[in-house]
Amino acid sequence: MMGMIEIPLLPALVASFLSLYWLTVEMRIIGLLYYTNKEKLGWFSQRLHRTENSVGAFSNSPDSLP
User: Fold this and answer.
1) What whole-number distance in Å separates Cα of residue 44 and Cα of residue 24?
2) What's the gap between Cα 27 and its chain centre?
3) How many CA atoms lie within 13 A of 58 on its CB side?
4) Residue 45's pLDDT band (boundaries 50, 70, 90)?
5) How distant, in Å, are the alpha carbons of 8, 15, 26, 39, 61 from that of 21?
């Protein structure tokens, strides 16, 4: 065992790479789920129009939509 040198940086690099890889895989799966169900979800089907009300704040209320 004396000939084996521990490399403390290698496990951290491997763990970081695997974490980034799985995050990318999860994002891909979520993107595919959205892509296949975007009509059913309808998140972006209605175009929101921002209008300024009397106090200067912006509103996304249904009354302000065209």
Assistant:
1) 23
2) 7
3) 5
4) confident
5) 21, 10, 9, 29, 40
